[in-house]
Design a protein that fits this description.
This protein is an alpha+beta fold and 312 residues long. It folds into two domains: 17-214 and 289-309, Creatinase/methionine aminopeptidase superfamily (Creatine Amidinohydrolase, Alpha-Beta Complex), CATH 3.90.230.10; 220-284, Winged helix-like DNA-binding domain superfamily/Winged helix DNA-binding domain (Arc Repressor Mutant, subunit A, Orthogonal Bundle), CATH 1.10.10. It contains seven helices and 15 strands. The protein has helices at 17-41, 48-61, 123-138, 146-159, 234-243, 253-260, 264-276; strands at 65-74, 77-79, 97-105, 108-116, 163-164, 169-174, 177-185, 200-203, 206-208, 215-225, 251-252, 280-287, 294-296, 299-302, 308-309. The strands form four sheets. It has a five-stranded antiparallel beta sheet with strand order 7-6-8-14-15. Strand 3 and strand 4 (108-116) form a beta hairpin. The radius of gyration is 19 Å and the shape is globular. Mean pLDDT is 95; it is low at 4-15.
């Protein structure tokens, strides 16, 4: 999962560094197991809701928690689509599906993604993002300029005739934080920032056959609790209370509706109040130009002299 604006500016807490690294590795191992298993589950004709539920349940069964809802974004949707309750969307053979998933243990977040297309027609687009991720990881060392990583990403994507998405970035991860500094852009830039020993980052190249820029859609199915304020609607109060268990991590509308079991119309009215009062922060689905295709790959990396790919 990614941030298309600016990553949250958080200080890197290197205290309890052993626990950070240990739990990140543990969460990453679970996430990579689920990611690999999920590749066998995905079949044309499958409902996205079934796939999301299966992925999220598998993370929990293995001893972690989802760091955010399973993002299952098809074709021109680049990111942030998770199925709604009773979602009837099914996967077609030609669809380019991005599977972007996260797991945490005690809040230590890991984030990983891959792209799949059953027809095999879009393999070059998929390879472009995969090659870019491999090249980026190969240059991850303390002291390396982040701009060098971004340049390596762009080089691999354009080598196959595609464009990187310029307003999506990789990001640092923290305890109960999916997005923090540093941002890792997918296009070259002039920032003097370097990777530091002990940083934990998620690198996620996006490749497209279109213009290389995403925009917010009206579809929004992922939220996080951003503030607590008084509200009049009793269902709004229930949503605030229920969302506190995620400790500021994103949750799915689908999860909340199931947990509360309230009628759909009443739920929508309560969610509108919480968004209007800026109590919830929304993550709209992000879209490239209509009719275009987007691919994505992602790993979480612990920056050391010998970097650890936690989600390998």
């Amino acid at each position: 999962m990614k941030n298309h604006e600016h990553a949250k500016d958080e200080n890197h807490d290197h205290s309890d560094s052993d626990e950070r690294i240990e739990k990140t590795i543990e969460a990453g191992k679970i996430l990579s197991e689920v990611r690999e298993e999920s590749k066998k589950w995905i079949k044309p004709g499958m409902k996205l809701e079934e796939l999301a539920d299966k992925i999220e349940s598998a993370i929990i069964k293995k001893g972690a928690q989802p760091a955010f809802p399973a993002n299952l974004s098809i074709n021109d949707i680049a990111a942030h689509y998770t199925p709604h309750l009773n979602d009837q969307t099914v996967l077609n053979e030609n669809d380019v599906l991005k599977v972007d998933i996260g797991a945490h243990i005690d809040g230590f977040v890991t984030d990983s993604a891959y792209t799949i297309c059953h027809s095999g027609e879009n393999q070059n687009l998929i390879d472009a993002a995969k090659n870019a991720l491999d090249a980026a990881i190969a240059s991850c060392k303390p002291g390396v300029l982040i701009s060098d990583i971004s340049t390596a990403i762009e080089k691999e994507i354009t080598a196959l005739g595609f464009k990187p998405i310029e307003n999506l970035t990789g990001h640092g991860v923290g305890q109960f934080i999916v997005h923090q500094d540093p941002a890792i852009p997918n296009i070259p830039h002039k920032s003097p920032k370097t990777l530091e020993d002990g940083m934990i980052i998620a690198i996620e190249p996006f490749a497209t056959n279109s213009r290389g820029r995403v925009h917010d859609t009206e579809i929004c199915l992922i939220f996080r609790l951003d503030d607590i304020k008084p509200v009049r609607n009793p269902i709004s109060r229930k949503i605030i209370e229920a969302s506190q268990k995620y400790n500021g991590l994103p949750f799915a509308e689908r999860w909340m509706q199931r947990d509360l079991g309230v009628p759909a119309f009443s739920f929508k009215m309560a969610m509108k109040e919480l968004l209007d009062k800026a109590i919830l922060y929304p993550y709209p689905a992000l879209k490239e130009q209509s009719g275009s295709l987007v691919s994505q790959f992602e790993h979480t990396i612990i920056i050391q002299d010998k970097p650890i790919v936690a989600t390998k």
